[in-house]
């Protein structure tokens, strides 16, 4: 029997951890990637038992230079053919750019931008040869914005993911490979804490969506070959309205939403 394999980065928590069982329930074998090996192994064991699929893990820091090629080498050692690549691992960081630690910025760019791009490039080769494959890149509602003062690098990195994914989707038309971009709004995961965003109005005012609902929307959109998936009605409205008004106003609103409050 021809089994399908999906690779999910950032599967040790949040949205990635909720995506994994959706694939397993559809009979996909899985390769789960993140740094926290214990959490990955527990998830893999649970999925192996519950769905009788093969779930393997790769422990790797994807925020290092060259991580895309390094993780691809490990994936290829498990299987030469993957059917789905989910580039989900990502981090944010709050604060004015001039106050952010240079190494935090560099790691964020490696993880959110370079590794995602490199892994996509590596995975595409086999997908194109087989004329079949799906790529799900996790961007953010932030990706539609003209900028995020207070989270400048994160917002820019997610605009990159959205722009890059839309462009290669167009390049790949007719190839059998689809690219879907998932753009969640605030979601209940570990993101808020690692991004130090708990004190921002954005996270205080909005009711975050459940990671499970976001994962399901992304999974279903990817299966249907959709271009962009924005989970939640309010988020959809925000995504559509993002391009309508003057950039200067959006930047002021984002400045207020992203400023830390007591
Ligand atoms: N939550 C939100 O409000 C929100 C909104 C829009 C977009 N997103 C996007 O959704 C995606 C998933 O985030 P989440 O919300 O589920 O956050 P999360 O709960 O913090 O999960 C992040 C995942 O990425 C992995 N990761 C982080 N740094 C890594 C590194 N250096 N190397 C390898 N893996 C790493 C983490 O695993 P380890 O720590 O074990 O490595 C974890 O599995 C991200 O791309 C994020 O930008 C989130």
| Overall average pLDDT | 96
Tell me the total number of β-strands. Answer: 9
Question: Order of strands across the biggest sheet?
Answer: 3-2-1-4-5-6-9
SS content category: alpha/beta
Element string (H = helix, E = strand): EHEHEHEHEHEEHHEHEHH
- Largest beta-sheet details: 7 strands, parallel
* Approximate helicity band: 40-55%
How many helical stretches?
10
Q: What name goes with the CATH superfamily?
A: NAD(P)-binding Rossmann-like Domain
- At the first level of CATH, the class is Alpha Beta
Q: What would you say the CATH architecture is?
A: 3-Layer(aba) Sandwich
Q: Descriptors for this entry?
A:
alpha/beta, Rossmann fold, 7-stranded parallel β-sheet, two-stranded parallel sheet, 10 helices, 50% helix, binds NADP nicotinamide-adenine-dinucleotide phosphate
Structural description of this entry:
- The termini are far apart.
- The longest helix has 29 residues, at 102-130.
- The protein has ten helices and nine strands.
- It has a single domain (5-258), classed as NAD(P)-binding Rossmann-like Domain (Rossmann fold), CATH 3.40.50.720.
- It is 50% helix and 15% strand.
- β2 (29-34), α2 and β3 form a beta-alpha-beta unit.
- α1 packs parallel to α2 (37-51) and α3 runs parallel beside α4 (102-130).
- The chain is of the alpha/beta class.
- NADP nicotinamide-adenine-dinucleotide phosphate is lined by residues 10-16, 34-36, 61-63, 88-92, 111, 138, 140, 184, 186-187, 189-191, 194.
């Amino acid at each position: 029997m021809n089994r399908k394999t999906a690779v999910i980065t950032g599967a040790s928590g949040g949205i990635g951890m909720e995506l994994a069982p959706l694939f397993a329930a559809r009979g996909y074998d899985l390769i789960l990637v993140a740094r926290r090996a214990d959490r990955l192994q527990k998830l893999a064991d649970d999925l192996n038992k519950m769905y009788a699929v093969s779930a393997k893990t790769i422990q790797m820091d994807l925020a290092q230079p060259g991580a895309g090629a390094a993780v691809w080498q490990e994936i290829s050692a498990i299987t030469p053919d993957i059917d789905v690549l989910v580039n989900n691992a990502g981090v944010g960081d709050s604060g004015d750019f001039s106050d952010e630690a240079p190494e935090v910025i560099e790691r964020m760019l490696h993880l959110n931008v370079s590794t995602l791009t490199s892994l996509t490039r590596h995975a595409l080769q086999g997908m194109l040869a087989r004329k079949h494959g799906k790529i799900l890149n996790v961007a953010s509602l932030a990706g539609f914005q003209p900028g995020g003062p207070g989270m400048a690098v994160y917002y820019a990195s997610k605009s990159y993911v959205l722009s890059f994914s839309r462009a290669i989707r167009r390049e790949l038309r007719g190839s059998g490979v689809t690219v879907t971009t998932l753009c969640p709004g605030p979601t209940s995961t570990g993101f808020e804490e690692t991004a130090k965003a708990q004190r921002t109005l954005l996270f205080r005012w909005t009711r975050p969506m459940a990671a499970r609902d976001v994962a399901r929307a992304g999974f279903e959109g990817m299966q249907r070959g959709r271009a962009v998936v924005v989970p939640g009605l309010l988020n959809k409205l925000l995504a559509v309205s993002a391009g309508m008004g003057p950039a200067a106003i959006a930047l002021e609103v984002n400045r207020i939403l992203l400023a830390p409050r007591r």
